[in-house]
Amino acid sequence: MDNQTGANRLQGNSIGLTHIVFFVVAAAAPMTAVVGATPPAFAFGNGAGVPGAFILSGILYLLFSVGFTAMTRHVTGAGAFYAYISRGLGNGAGIGGALMALLAYFAIQIGIYALFAVFMAGAMESLGVSLPWWLWSLAVLAVVVLFGRRNIAISGRILGLCMIAELVILLFLDIAIVMHGGAEGLSLAGFRPSEVFGPGLGVTMVFVLGAYVGFEATAIFGEEACDPDRTIPRATYVAVLLITAFYAVSTWAIVQFYGPAAVAGAATENLDGFYFAAAETMLGHWSVQVMNVLLLTSLFACLLSFHNTLNRYFYALGHEGLAWKSLSAVHETHGSPHVAGLVQAGLVALILLGFGLSGADPYTLVFSWMSGLAVLGILAVQVLVSVAVIVFFRRTVHQRSVLTVLVAPVLAMAGLVGAFLLVSSNLTLLTGSENPIVLAFPEIVIATGACGFLFAAWLKHRRPEHFARLGRAFD
């Protein structure tokens, strides 16, 4: 791999295992996911069985990671999903997958900017400052762009500090609950099959799967990683295990606090304050104030992580000649794809302004709709990656076991297809809307992929030499 900076390549050997894990776990936004996403799962899903649902999701993504990371030594650049799918299924499928990934990451980023604005506006109104929500979104966008322009390791350190602070306060709550003993005494409630596989598991999985969006971004940093053949697989497994263990333990602890029989009712009655009430009881009022601040830092860390991820997708498309060539320009000092960062920030600003000036509610419309679209988009791309892994290793000489290159990817593919159908059938619950646009999200995702495939067909016909080079720029 070329480790030189300049107009063509990102800076190699600039980040290690710890930095990449920070990026991925920060994208999962532990504080936001636990405090914001799990209460609806408790209220509308399988109640006390939520911790077990995280274990099921963790197993699914570990299976996915087996084949995904097996291809790391064959695809080590910033192209990530695009490069993986292209190598296994051809350039047409690769471009289609890239467009679906861009749609998903853009959607979740827009949704999180809106959610940040909701919490920031609430915090500032208590201080007597009242501004439209979209101005807060644009303000944090400017800060994100500033940090995204710097060396990737700097962002990694910032994300690490934010992530550690989130984990610490939630672990304090978990420990306090365990020491207190819970409402009905400590038990395995939350992991028992009768609770996990009870009524509402499908609804719970809709919320739980969304908590994993972004873990696959480990591969995007392959070009900048130290020893990517080892670092990327390790970072992927560490990220999945860390996310799964932390969410499972935190949700198990809250089940113990309220009691397995009462936890669903408590969540239904107090979705917003479900965890805050427990924190105030177990730790005191100071913890509630800290958690409110950490919600903002959690969202900021998430935005910075997705900003860097999208920058590298734009960089890859520019490098391949599928988009404006200048998108592949690398900052001479910081080694970052700074032009890609400015372009994608401009697009985000236009979308946020469109939502804001049209009077869209930042939570019930922007965040809810974009979250549903993002989960569907990522699941669709992950299905393609699983298929690409199977096809790639069937026609490539390798020393991998059949469990690695066939059994695990097939199981992952089946689980991801089921998850896509599950989310599709529960979009109304996930988004809180029956708008025809929302109900058409699955078709929109598939149509986006089809557009990429059609563009590839046009490119193959009109520019065959360019088409033949696609997917090879990051070998």
From TrEMBL:
Residues 19-424 form the Amino acid permease/ SLC12A domain. Pfam families: AA_permease (PF00324). It is found in: Membrane. Its main location: membrane. GO terms for cellular component: membrane. Keywords: Membrane, Transmembrane, Transmembrane helix. This is APC family permease. It comes from Paenirhodobacter huangdaonensis.
